[in-house]
Amino acid sequence: MKNLIRELRAERGWSQAILAEHLEVSRQTIIAIETGRYDPSLPLAMAIARLFNKSVEGIFFPGD
Amino acid sequence: MDICKQNIRKYYLELGLSFVFYAVALILAMHFGYRMHRGLLRTLILVAPMIPCLFATWAIVRQFRRMDEYQRLKATEDVVISAAVTALVTVTYGFFENAGFPRLTMFVVWPIMGGTWFVCSMCRLIAGYIRGKDSE
Fold this sequence. Notes:
Oligomer: heterodimer
Low-confidence stretches of chain A: none
Structural class of chain A: mainly alpha
Number of strands of chain B: 0
CATH superfamily of chain A: lambda repressor-like DNA-binding domains
CATH class of chain A: Mainly Alpha
Number of domains of chain A: 1
Order of helices and strands of chain A: EHHHHHE
């Protein structure tokens, strides 16, 4: 899966550490999700979507 | 301080205290246990250092449950790799023993597993640090 987390985070001027704090996960988890190395669970994906006020499909989409 | 750092602090505190109790129990057990005659009481005293190890196990389980889902996945991978390496090394050495190599105590098993676990964790930590620098 690919995602728009980096772009959404940049729009708000948040660092990876700040986003990690909002989601109560580690910065390593944010890095892994942003770089596409890890697809979050549904609860975490929904928490991300809620935080950015978007739908899950509006953030995550199938990659190559 | 973020929640992950708070969790790590709690874990180090709990694990550190367990190790302190283990060291004290080990010193006392060796001091008194080796002077006693063979018997149930001596066996119980010599095995007593394992009681603080139960606290260490409890600290590890608590920390595992506090981890987020990605950390938990990676920690599980580390344990699987270290268990597999330990199985390979110990079974291989078992065949060497059949061929006449000296018999080793079971105390060597944990250092092999713990050592492999440590190496896996360090590799992951270094890789994560490098990736983190790249993806800022």
